[in-house]
């Protein structure tokens, strides 16, 4: 079921009261039931990364993060990744595995929806962080040229997570995009994080990294555009 900071809600976000909207609302209510049956963290997002639906596994994964006025994972996932000081405590290898791909997706969204006020608000917040702004304007294009555009994709990517159960520790997850046509027609997309068991030998071993301590900036390293 979907939820927001400070509480849980059992129905999707409201939509205008028309016959078409009622049908869409009914579909989303049934889809919320489907989402809740999935054992892995799964979330439905709009083009701004506002959370439309999220299941209990998603809530449990991010349940330990502290409050934030604008960047809770159950409100806007992009803002959480970029601006929440606790993001690195859940999203392993936070900068290169999560921030840079999300900034790349954000750049694409801004191109498609240039006048969207929600996206422009995120852009203004990025601009207020000099390091993140440099990453957005220079680091991301250089990173995509270096590693290839496929690195910016979510679907199929394998990224590290710090599991809330300390017995599991840092694990990998496979990001799976699985959006049915009806959701896509509504302007929504679905993302599921398929959690792997620790020590699964299908990916190169990573050196463990401590979560970054919160600073005035949310990024610490920006790839140089001149390398």
What's the helix and strand layout?
Elements: E1 3-4, E2 7-8, H1 19-36, E3 42-45, E4 51-54, H2 56-61, H3 77-83, H4 94-112, H5 117-127, H6 130-147, E5 158-162, E6 170-177, H7 181-185, E7 189-195
Antiparallel strand pairs: 1-2, 3-4, 3-7, 5-6, 6-7
Structural description of this entry:
The chain contains 7 helices and 7 strands, in the order ββαββαααααββαβ. By secondary structure, the protein is of the alpha+beta class. The protein has a single domain, classed as Beta-Lactamase (2-Layer Sandwich). The strands form 2 sheets. The protein has a 5-stranded antiparallel sheet with strand order 4-3-7-6-5. A hairpin with a 7-residue loop joins β5 (158-162) and β6. Residues 1-10, 202-216 and 223-227 have low confidence and may be disordered.
Summarize the structure.
This protein has helices at 19-36, 56-61, 77-83, 94-112, 117-127, 130-147, 181-185, and strands at residues 3-4, 7-8, 42-45, 51-54, 158-162, 170-177, 189-195. It is of the alpha+beta class.
Name the descriptors.
about 230 residues, alpha+beta, Beta-Lactamase, 7 strands, disordered N terminus
CATH architecture: 2-Layer Sandwich
Q: What is the CATH T-level topology?
A: Beta-Lactamase
Give the CA-based shape.
Answer: globular
Low-confidence stretches: 1-10, 202-216, 223-227
Category by helix and strand content: alpha+beta
Per CATH, the class reads Alpha Beta
How many strand segments?
A: 7
How helix-rich are the residues, as a percent range? Answer: 25-40%
Number of helices: 7
| Strand and helix order | EEHEEHHHHHEEHE
Output the strand order for the largest sheet: 4-3-7-6-5
| Rg value | 17 Å
Kindly give the count of domains. Answer: 1
Biggest sheet details: 5 strands, antiparallel
Proportion of beta-strand residues? 5-15%
The rounded distance between the terminal residues' Cα atoms is 46 Å
Average of the residue pLDDT scores: 84
């Amino acid at each position: 079921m979907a939820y927001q900071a400070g509480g849980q809600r059992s129905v999707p976000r409201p939509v205008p009261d028309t016959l078409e909207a009622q049908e869409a609302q009914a579909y989303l209510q049934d889809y919320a039931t489907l989402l809740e049956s999935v054992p892995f963290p799964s979330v439905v997002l709009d083009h701004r990364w506002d959370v439309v639906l999220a299941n209990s596994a998603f809530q449990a994964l991010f349940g330990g993060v502290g409050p934030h006025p604008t960047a809770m994972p159950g409100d806007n996932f992009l803002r959480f990744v970029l601006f929440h000081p606790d993001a690195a405590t859940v999203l392993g290898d936070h900068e290169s595995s999560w921030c840079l791909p999300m900034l790349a997706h954000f750049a694409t969204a801004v191109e498609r929806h240039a006048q969207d006020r929600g996206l422009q608000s995120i852009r203004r917040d990025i601009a207020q962080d000099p390091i993140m702004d440099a990453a957005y304007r220079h680091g991301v294009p250089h990173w995509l040229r270096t590693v290839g555009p496929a690195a910016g994709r979510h679907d199929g990517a394998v990224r590290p997570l710090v599991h809330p159960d300390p017995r599991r520790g840092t694990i990998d997850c496979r990001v799976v995009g699985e959006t049915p046509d009806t959701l896509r027609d509504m302007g929504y997309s679905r993302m599921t994080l398929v959690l792997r068991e620790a020590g699964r030998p299908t990916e190169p071993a990573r050196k463990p990294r401590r979560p970054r301590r919160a600073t005035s900036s949310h990024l610490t390293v920006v790839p140089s555009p001149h390398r």
